[in-house]
Amino acid sequence: KTLPSISQVTEAHTAEIRPGAFIRQGRKLDIDLGAEGNRYYEANYWQFPDGIHYNGCSEANVTKEKFVTSCINATQVANQEELSREKQDDKLYQRVLWRLIRELCSV
Length: 107
Fold this sequence. Notes:
Layout lengths: L5 H11 L4 E3 L10 H11 L6 E3 L10 H15 L1 H4 L7 H16 L1
Antiparallel strand pairs: 1-2
GO biological process, one term: single fertilization
Subcellular location: Cell membrane
Keywords: Amyloid, Cell membrane, Copper, Disulfide bond, Fertilization, Glycoprotein, GPI-anchor, Lipoprotein, Membrane, Metal-binding, Prion, Signal
């Protein structure tokens, strides 16, 4: 049996990435999340996304507001399970995550 070529593997991997999918490379972002959020993020940044896969910018005449809204909506759909964690201790996590999503979609 022959192994797939690198281009076939790359194509298949790229095709699996849905719009709004989190990108996690372990980078710490420079975003002000407020005193409590900054402390939490500093201690746990590796758990959070540092990018979002979204290509909506290719559409002609897209306003920044429409782009950001579409990016946030796609991210919400792609990550429903993680965004719906409702444990009491996850409230700060959720607040920080949503702030990061808004910032990453605005970049």
